[in-house]
Design brief:
The protein has helices spanning 3-20, 23-32, 37-45, 58-74, 107-120, 133-145, 230-247, 269-275; strands at residues 77-88, 91-95, 98-103, 124-130, 152-155, 164-169, 175-179, 183-186, 189-192, 197-202, 209-215, 256-261, 276-277, 280-281, 284-285, 288-289, 298-300, 305-307, 310-314, 327-329, 344-349. Residues 1-54 have low confidence and may be disordered. The chain contains eight helices and 21 strands. By secondary structure, it is an alpha+beta fold. The strands form six sheets. It has a seven-stranded mixed β-sheet, with helices on one face. Strands 7-10-11-12-19-15 form a six-stranded mixed β-sheet, with no helix packed on it. Helix 1 (3-20) packs across helix 4 (58-74). The protein starts with a helix and ends with a strand.
């Protein structure tokens, strides 16, 4: 907010504080205008009280203005989004010329993707399926050329060499902690969370805010004894949940978001693992919909099916800061040409 706007808001708040206490008196006196003196006297004798407006001294006005100005200066919003950008790198894909191996994301999709990101205008953007550091650098460069600058960026080098979790931010990073070696028991052995967990902390007027960016295992079946990789996905979610609790043992007093592509619905076991451990409430899943009331974030084009697998979870200690208590899904027309996912966004009032 610019200084002139802050000053104007300060004056308005101070004026509201002065006139608020006299509102009831003004209302009563307005009703009394035009009535006979006898009726007013009768009302007073019956116990009616006509309040006098509160008029602070010059010093009182100064104090009110100071409090209002401080409140305006401290008031701040922060917009955070998660977006699976669908193979923003070299991948085997169908093109207009047919099937191609190790082919870059088409320029038309990149243009649509940047239009979506500009439309989001998020302060912090958590990305999934970034091909690697050169591709993240390319995206930042192209966005900057189009007027959207993200001076802060981080990419997690996990066990998936093709698809990475990354974060773009206007806010300076206070701390960056990559969790690339999280392990969990899996079908008699041990596995690592395939894409890891990217932990980012930024400073805000209300205190530090921590983001945990994730991308759980897809529903592709890697092993016949784990159809749709459901067991592995739950194992990854459990490892991530425990890492969050190791960082914040008391979520009720903590300020964090867990967000990304969970490859699971809100009632799925993987998402449920992220929400609780025993009697401890770890996080709350934010409801989300687009402007039309539609709740899907992923389109499976082959089957023409739609589901919500991208989620934002908020710690109990931060939930009161969520504007409206909900997230929202970006529903711009360009989204379908950019990725098979749609972004999910939350605004925090700090």
């Amino acid at each position: 907010m610019k200084s002139a706007g802050i000053r104007r808001l300060g004056y308005e708040l101070a004026a509201q504080a002065e006139t608020g206490r006299a509102a009831s008196a003004q209302t009563l006196r307005a009703k009394a205008v035009g009535t006979k003196v006898a009726k007013i006297a009768k009302a007073e004798s019956a116990g009616a009280v006509f309040l006098r407006p509160w008029r602070p001294s010059g010093k009182g006005l100064g104090v009110l203005f100071l409090f209002a100005l401080v409140a305006a200066l401290r008031a701040e919003t922060l917009t955070v989004a998660t977006y699976n950008v669908e193979n923003y790198g070299s991948a085997d894909r169908m093109t207009e010329a047919g099937y191609r191996k190790e082919y870059p994301k088409p320029e038309t999709e990149k243009q649509a993707l940047r239009a979506v990101i500009r439309g989001l205008d998020a302060d912090i953007l958590v990305l999934q399926e970034v091909g690697g550091q050169p591709y993240l650098d390319e995206l930042r460069r192209d966005l900057k050329a189009e007027g959207l600058d993200y001076p802060q960026a981080s990419l997690l080098e996990g066990n998936d060499s093709d698809r990475h979790v990354a974060v773009l931010s206007r806010r300076p990073f206070k701390a960056v902690t990559p969790h690339a070696a999280l392990e969990f028991p899996y079908l008699g052995g041990t596995e690592r969370v395939k894409r890891g967990l990217l932990e980012i902390t930024v400073a805000t007027p209300a205190g530090d805010l921590t983001l945990f960016g994730l991308h759980l295992k897809s529903r592709f079946t890697d092993r016949p004894d784990d159809p749709m990789s459901a067991v592995r996905r739950v194992g990854e979610a459990t490892a991530i949940r425990d890492a969050v609790l190791a960082r914040f043992p008391d979520p009720a007093a903590a300020r964090f978001l867990v967000l990304g592509d969970c490859n699971d619905g809100k009632a799925g076991k993987a998402v449920q693992r992220l929400l609780r451990r025993g009697k401890t409430e770890v996080a709350r899943l934010l409801p989300a919909a687009d402007a039309r009331g539609e709740t899907w974030t992923h389109a499976y084009r082959k089957e023409e099916t739609y589901s919500r697998v991208d989620h934002i979870l908020v710690s109990p200690g931060l939930s009161a800061s969520v504007r409206g208590g909900v997230a929202r899904i970006y529903g711009g027309a360009e989204a379908t040409g950019a990725s098979d996912h749609r972004p999910v966004v939350v605004t925090l009032e700090l």
